[in-house]
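Justification of resources, computational component.

The compute hours requested in this renewal are based largely on the per-chain cost of generating structure records like the one below. Each record pairs the submitted sequence with a full structure-token output. That output is archived, and it is also reused by downstream analysis tasks.
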Amino acid sequence: MEKELKTIGVLTSGGDAPGMNAAIRAVTRTAIARGLKVKGIKKGYNGLLNEEIIDMRPKDVSDIIQRGGTILGTARCMEFKTTEGQQKGAEICRKHGIDGIVVIGGDGSYRGAQKLARLGINTVGLPGTIDLDISCTDYTIGFDTAINTAMQAIDKVKDTSSSHERCSIIEVMGRNAGYIALWCGIANGAEDILLPEKYDYNEQAIINNIIDSRKKGKSHHLIINAEGIGHSVSMARRIEAATGIETRATILGYMQRGGNPTCKDRYYASIMGAYAVDILLQGKTNRVVGYRHGEFVDFDIEEALNMQKSIDPYQLEVSRILSI
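The structure output for this chain reads:
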């Protein structure tokens, strides 16, 4: 080992995502295989401050790779956003002999990891969020499962929408990012896709599109609406009043965050978990693991947080062409 590490901690923070358990398993087993001890920190930074810390052995992560959610639990922690909370967290790490921590979560979780790194605790972040909104990586743990869960649900709603010749507005998650909406919009053959990054709130254009589609003989109209836009129920009422076409809103909600992770989420999370342990052993700290251009890579947390990410204009144009 290039770095004198003896014990690492692992925690999940922020919203849960399918594949987090695969990452926990990979961190635990890789670390133990490298001669380290592993501490599981329950309920994210909140559990760290409350010293909800347990020893992790290989058998503790048996039969979890196929499970959604996170066996360590997760929670948001306002106290950890304070200087006092961060200093307390670093002191607790030292008290329990934790030399480094792998943090699985999103941007907010990385900011917490960055603070710990500045206080002398080696940290590596893994991108665990269904939203795909972390700029330094082309993949985030849980996104693949979420879009497949949403796609299957939308197919079912589309069936009944077609039977009743309705307009359906289906709201998907993603916070302020439109990646789930874009992917599902293309995969489910939506006529309109509303993305926070691009939506101009011109509802009349949607109404005109619905009317034109009906004139062309389409028996139903599917609108995928991103969470960052929201207000699907009131939008449905306005569209029905303007078009005379029965319009229903369906909000898929938290079902997208649960369920058995796909093969891709299990595989990528496993490689990322192992990678995180190995870069800690190389002496790296304050890093974020990502996947770019077909390779697993790592970035400085500050660099990662300052990166910008946007919807690919070509993919957006394709979505418009295919909706004709």
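DSSP finds eleven helices and eleven strands in the chain. The radius of gyration is 22 Å.
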